[in-house]
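Record type: ASSEMBLY
Status: queued
Input:
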Amino acid sequence: MKTSSTPLGLPIARARASLAFGAASVALGLALGATAVAARELKPVAVVKGLVNPWGLAFLPDGRMLVTEKPGRIRIADAQGRVSPPLAGTPTVPAVANVGQCGMLDIAVDPKFADNRLVYWTFAEPGAGGNGTAVARARLEGTVGQERLADVRVIFSQQPKMESRLHCGSRIAFDRQGHLWVGLGDRFGGKDSAQTTDNHIGKVVRIASDGSVPADNPFVGRSGARPELWSYGHRNIQGLAAHPVTGDLWASEHGPQGGDEVNVVDGGRNYGWPVVTYGRNYGTGTAIGEEGPKPGIEMPLKHWVPVSVAPSGLAFVTSDRYPGWKGSLVLGTLRAQALIRLSLDGRRVVGEQRLLAELGHRIRDVREGPDGWLYIVTDGSEGQVIRLER
Ligand SMILES: [Ca+2]
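Status: finished
Output:
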């Protein structure tokens, strides 16, 4: 048999098998080499261009996109690449502390948007003590192309504010009751506060749509604990997604030098930072904590050492657009400049594939659109939204 021109011989082997056995061979080909084939067949299509440090992406039911720009703007983009002026608000859209890693961050559309027209975003809120990540809510009003934000209000503010340009998080995800999970960073200088429950530093919080505290939150009624808390011991979460089948909260988290993590974040649990971590101090490489496991500490399902990938947005593949990928978790990465796809078996990560590294983009967010395609957001002063066709 003539050998293939590729090391693995997949294309020729697959082509011959397909000719010989028809549909059955497609299943065989998928089992043997689907990931490599599919990766080659991804076709990145730039849908929106010229965004300034785009950070968060959320789809409206009509397929248009809400996109944030870190300096402090929210725009609407359509499938033709047309981008609206920054949305104005009543009262005004809250001022953003655009410093370092902090600024206008994530954006999310209420699960019942068709009824209530509510949108939410996270941002670095300036104030006494420095800045802190906050959540704002507004109602999107107006006809297509003439939208504005009404009844704008801040429904949550991270406490305490700190003088920091680092580790603002953040992401928003919804649980099945329509409550918001929000990932909050440790502000770099506040890492020891991640282990105490009397603050919002290095935490996931869970709040209702109006900012109130759900009665079934895990820390409600615990002496000295903030009732908004869902989990603690986090460093800097920039990826959150609710599992489409179980409803569990999955998160990606930045480590320091190594130690980036993927976790399932259960209510009331301690995720270790900084006492249990695979990450090490920048430069010196000295230990920060112990590697674990340790009683009372949740260990990550996946971690990266010794080099960080710097994980950003996180999404589950729920559509049938990508054969073999349904149920996978995809995460954008900044440092690794790739889209990482993790194959899952329940709560186990059973495979890792790096995609799109040839594009050389820092990937800030990834979402699945209502059309079933994955969309990535690239970082930078000429940021893009790219649809991944195949
Ligand atoms: Ca951890």
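Annotation: The longest helix spans residues 23-41.
Annotation: The pocket of calcium ion is lined by residues 261, 271-273, 277, 300 (CB under 6 Å).
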